[in-house]
Amino acid sequence: MDRFYHLPHNAVLVAEFNFLVSKLNPETKHYKAKDLQRLFLVEQVRANKFKDFHPKPYRNFTEQNPPDKDKLRSKFFELENAPICPSHTIQEVYDKIQELGPEDALEWFLQNRRDSFARFVADPEANYESFVMTPYTTQKQWKYNWAEFVRDYIQFLSYIGIIPAYYKGWGRENEMSGEAGFVISKLGEKYINGEISLPRMLMGYKYRNALVNLDNYPQYARKVRPFFAALQLLAKFESQGVNHIERNLLAGFVSCIMDEVEVDEIVRRHKRQLSDDANNNLQSIISVNGVFSKEIARFALTLSKFLIETGLIESNRNGRFNLLSISELGKQTLADEPKKIAVSNDVIGQLGLTPIIGYILKHFADSVRSGNNEVEIARLYESSELLKSIVDEATFRHLLDDLKDVADSPIEQITDGQIMLRDLNYQYSINSSADFSDIYDSNFVEGVPIKPHKQEIVRVERSTVLDGIVQRLTTAALASDGEAYENELYGAVSNLIGNEYAFQLGNVGSRAQRLSDTVWKVPILFDDEQKKLLVIFESKAGNAINGFDERKEKDDLKRTIRHFANELTEIAGIWYIVVDGPHLPENQHGGFRGGQSLSFEEKLQDIQHTVLSVVNKPVLVSAMNIHSFVEYYKYLFQITRQFGQTFTAFNDTVVQNFWIWGSLFHPVRSYSKIYNDHLMVKNTLRTTYAEQ
Q1: Is a pLDDT exceeding 50 seen at residue 173?
Q2: N or C, fewer C-beta in 10 Å, the chain?
Q3: Backbone angles phi, psi at 331, to 5 degrees
Q4: C-alpha 683: how far from chain center
């Protein structure tokens, strides 16, 4: 049970899934959950599909003696004797029971449902709001029942990559709430337009993904493609003479896999038992209690329905058991899939799964799938303008060399101009939507042409104000007074676009809990929407970096983000910046860690991974010594001086090197980076200075 995870178990009809997808408009681009709830209900009623997809609610809304009448009658008689309206009971329903008595109130209730539905059918758009507020049970209006019905479909559409919801926050009620934001990805657009089949999409459904809050749901911290793993188990068992697996047993196997490498062990351990059909069921293989058995059955419902209705598996009844076997289409689909899995924020060898690494690995897998095991290095490098703007050709070749050195590498060999790729057993499955935490990176990985802006030369003008800020910052950074350094950093940040965007927090948390030093809440234009970026600074004066404890910093950082929890729907991402004194540790031990010897870089990666698992918006971690930070500050100071009174938001045209924009900070090898060389920072920014 401690290995178990869930699939959205209300999303079980492929016909309804495809109907819902057909109603999505790629031109709309952004949806909220409440918009999808409305769209899906209105369109089902218009197309006369509601009765097919939801027959029981349809009967409740239309029949004189609906299926729930007896249950409602019992509840009405119970409420008649309640002296006051119980909590979680609709006041209007309670009042009618007290006024009319239970029998007459029940007739009013049922007639009200029928009339409301009839009005809705006559004009769905005009009557939607009033219809969804119709009492459906004594406790809930229809709005809440429908939200539960449709939530799992929305979640499934998100996780499969069609309409990813790049939002996670504290509080489970926020996960799929009416305000949660969804976008139609390029991958989703391809599916809507019929360019990708549903079997192919199912193979890319995976956990972990960039859309589940691992802080709230740690059971999803695994590496598994459930539909792929089911096919793989059926195929491998068949190769050992076990031609079918009982439905709930297959679901039990898949729902407890932590990593796909466990598939072979499952087959090895159980192939002898399962060769006897009498043992080929969940109850014979493992003793499970009623609660766990019910959860597995729910998992099996979604797993088997989608695999059967897409033709990937076949089902045969044997007594009270459903026996599943892989079909020819299932075998072909499995053969066409990369066998290695990469998941959100994964580490492959020494490389993080950044958008650039994801782009390369997806290109490899797509090439091999199409029968081409040779890739020209120059053609791959030239395939993306954004790729070329972020890394030069020499750096790109270093990345390829690092991928070649990975254990069981997807690369067979690299010559001067060619990459020889291994077969699909060595290629990685990349889901451009589910593996990355924003639509910008998702579309890049999917191959959308993105033309970067030409890098402008920034001339930093003479300024006594800037000179004073830089001098005070540098002096404080090199000294040992941490509080003075915090104050100077806050003052410098406040001076850029105004005090109203900067916050000095420190110990303002509840019960004086420590928060990060300074937060800069920057308005940005991201994905054509007005958003905010939380830039969170942690300053370390003098040699304080030698005591850097990433466990404390993670807690401070999570508390800081929680401080802005009410604004998370408007926050596009997090940028955590550590500003040090003269020199940051790089390859050596990175400060206090209770006896463990993690490098400073590893600590930064740990911080990034932890924060991403909570908010799952783009999270970037940068560490700069004071000289590198001063170079970057001068750049920002000059850029922001040009805004004048017209400032509304940063964008990647005006501020070309900021967060994930531009080549200075964009993640290449990982989502964290150390900046000790101020001349490299200056050259990348292309800053020049007016004569003093």
Answers
A1: no
A2: C
A3: -65, -40
A4: 34
pLDDT exceeds cutoff 90 at 452: no
- Tell me what pLDDT residue 596 has: 57
pLDDT tens figures, 621-665: 999 999 999 999 999 999 998 876 667 789 888 899 999 998 999
Pairing of strands 347-348, 374-376: unpaired
pTM greater than the 0.85 cutoff: yes
Judge contact between 493 and 531, C-beta under 8 A. no
Which two tokens mark 448?
A: 């959308």
Cα(408)–Cα(365) distance, integer angstroms = 14
Pairing mode of beta strands 340-341, 428-429: parallel
From the number of C-beta atoms within 10 Å of its C-beta (0-12, 13-18, 19+), residue 506 rates as middle
Q: By C-alpha distance, which of 49, 20, 384, 15 is closest to 182?
A: 20
Q: Which residue, chain included where needed, has tokens 């039990």?
A: 252
HEC letters along 473-520: HHHHHHCCCHHHHHHHHHHHHHHHHCHHHEEECCCCCHHHCCCCCEEE
What is the SS3 assignment for 374-388? EEEHHHHHHCCHHHH
Q: Yes or no: say if 423 and 367 are a contact pair by the CB < 8 Å rule.
A: no
Would you state the structure tokens that stand for residue 257, as one six-digit string? Answer: 């896999």
Residue listed under structure tokens 């089949």: 197
Structure tokens of 415?
């010559």
What is the dihedral angle through the alpha carbons of 173, 174, 178, 180, rounded to the nearest 10 degrees?
A: -160
- Decide if 494 contacts 502 (C-beta within 8 A): yes
